[in-house]
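Structure first, sequence second, as always.
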């Protein structure tokens, strides 16, 4: 039997066309990044309160004269006109000199450098677990639905996808940390310092929270993609011709069904890092999310801007990477046309 044609012919552009396409995509993301950086500058200043609260209690601040307030504001830069602060901020972003934290005196770069590896460890482990479990369940769900089964799995996935992270985190802490005492409930290392065993034990509950709350939509997306391919005309014809179901799924269903999931996973890496703020705060995990929460609570403008910038960069870079790698997986999209 001849091979099944499940994709359009390769209509990819030549090398100049690919360079133009890639250059255009990069240029678009440069504009997106500039807009994000601008919002990153403006949003902290839109929060109620102000950075002066860091320099004393409300009673002490009330006793400050206008001259003393102006002196503090000038020394730390937030007394300048907004446009002056903005251009100074752009210069600091380009030179990676993000200033000094108002709350603990460390440089912002140092604070982020200490917290970022912990977040990458947490998010990396979570995305691997979420992807493997979500795709496996989605493939099984799609195959079972094509046989008229799997309604219960679909309902369960919708319910799991609706669970708030903070609620699930607290439930896991109560049951596994307090009642059964089988897993640590806070921090990232044990009393012996950084050890493989200690790291793994402290990752269990945060990773479980991110994985459980993230499985649902990957399952639903994979299941939907599987059903689209299984009900497509080429696959239906192949099934009618008597090709064994296992061979049909392996050779002609899985690859086209999982291509859209690739983009979802790439985007999920960036958004999961941004969404880790809640989980890291609940579990007192010393990552970028907890650092961001502390900066927001303290109205620490430099630290807020630095952490927001890193989280924004992660989301934008994952979007860009998804755009650049998808044409390598699916030749039909290399022209930037409709797949």
């Amino acid at each position: 039997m001849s091979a099944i044609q499940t994709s359009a012919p390769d209509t990819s552009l030549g090398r100049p066309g690919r360079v133009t396409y890639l250059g255009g995509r990069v240029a678009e993301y440069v504009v997106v990044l500039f807009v994000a950086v601008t919002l990153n500058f403006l949003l902290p200043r839109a929060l109620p309160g102000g950075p002066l609260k860091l320099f004393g209690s409300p009673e002490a601040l009330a006793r400050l004269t206008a001259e003393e307030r102006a002196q503090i504001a000038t020394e730390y830069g937030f007394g300048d006109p907004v446009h002056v602060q903005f251009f100074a901020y752009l210069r600091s972003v380009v030179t990676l000199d993000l200033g000094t934290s108002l709350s603990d005196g460390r440089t912002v770069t140092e604070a982020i450098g200490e917290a970022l590896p912990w977040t990458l460890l947490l998010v990396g482990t979570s995305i691997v677990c979420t992807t493997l479990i979500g795709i496996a369940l989605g493939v099984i769900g799609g195959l079972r639905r094509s046989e008229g089964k799997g309604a219960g799995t679909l309902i369960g996935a919708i319910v799991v996808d609706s669970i708030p992270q903070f609620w699930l985190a607290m439930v896991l802490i109560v049951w596994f940390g307090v009642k059964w005492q089988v897993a640590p409930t806070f921090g990232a290392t044990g009393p012996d310092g950084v050890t493989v065993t200690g790291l793994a034990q402290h990752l269990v509950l945060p990773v479980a929270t991110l994985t459980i709350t993230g499985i649902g939509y990957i399952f639903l997306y994979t299941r939907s993609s599987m059903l689209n391919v299984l009900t497509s005309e080429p696959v239906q014809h192949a099934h009618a011709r008597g090709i064994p179901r296992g061979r049909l799924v392996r050779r002609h269903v899985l690859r086209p069904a999982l291509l859209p999931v690739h983009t979802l996973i790439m985007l999920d890496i960036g958004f999961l890092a941004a969404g880790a703020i809640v989980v890291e705060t609940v579990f007192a995990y010393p990552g970028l999310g907890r650092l961001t929460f502390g900066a927001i609570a303290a109205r620490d403008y430099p630290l807020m801007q630095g952490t927001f910038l890193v989280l924004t960069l992660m989301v934008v870079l994952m979007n860009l990477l998804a755009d650049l790698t998808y044409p390598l997986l699916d030749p039909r999209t290399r022209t930037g046309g409709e797949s």
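Margin note: Residues 138 and 220 are 6 Å apart (CA to CA).
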